[in-house]
Design brief:
α5 runs antiparallel to α6. By secondary structure, the chain is mainly alpha-helical. Helix content is about 75%, strand content about 0%. The longest helix is centred in the last third of the chain and has 31 residues. It has a domain of about 100 residues. It has eight helices and no strands.
């Protein structure tokens, strides 16, 4: 538990409080705009797959770029200078836009419910393969000297991880009993 407390204290001691608050407010604003103006429904109703993809790309580009711009303004520094950083800052919204824009409904059988069932069963694993392959390619191009994003296992103290997991399981179990949770997260 001390290790977890250390990480939390270290995070807050190295984070600019004004940037933290402004970024939090920006996140809250984006969530509000998404739900109040039904951003997902609005974008998905666009006439072409290209328009849907490009719209999501712009949403994610704005959401990913703004915190760096806020940091730059607050610290009076330009953090977006390295070519590889700029490339990754563009690749991230591309990948997120792909993930959210893919809507595939192949017909597996003539029976509608059966076809819907197989779409739901196969869609998420196929999407995981697509996104994982994209991440592996990105990692090979930019960070192959590092462990694959978050996959380092050597030299890790697992005790804080398991402790936090044990603390979260009852909370997730409680949340999963809520009808709102069940409506949004059946997958």
């Amino acid at each position: 538990m001390k290790q977890v407390q250390f990480y939390i204290k270290e995070y807050f001691s190295t984070t600019n409080p004004a940037v933290f608050i402004i970024s939090g407010l920006l996140t809250a604003l984006l969530v509000f705009l998404n739900y109040f103006f039904r951003l997902d429904d609005t974008i998905r109703s666009l006439p072409s797959a290209t328009a849907i993809y490009f719209s999501w790309f712009l949403v994610f580009l704005f959401a990913f770029t703004m915190p760096y711009l806020i940091y730059g303004i607050m610290d009076r520094k330009n953090y977006i200078t390295e070519k590889s950083f700029i490339q990754l800052l563009l690749i991230a919204p591309l990948l997120f836009a792909i993930k959210i824009s893919i809507i595939a409904t192949p017909c597996f059988t003539d029976n509608g419910p059966d076809s819907l069932f197989w779409n739901k069963i196969l869609f998420w694993p196929v999407l995981v393969v697509i996104i994982t392959a994209s991440l592996i390619i990105t990692w090979k191009l930019f960070n192959s000297d590092q462990p694959f994003y978050g996959m380092k296992t050597k030299g890790i103290n697992w005790k804080p991880y398991w402790l936090m997991l044990l603390m979260m399981v009852p909370l997730v179990a409680l949340a999963s009993a809520q009808t709102d949770f069940q409506a949004v997260y059946p997958k």
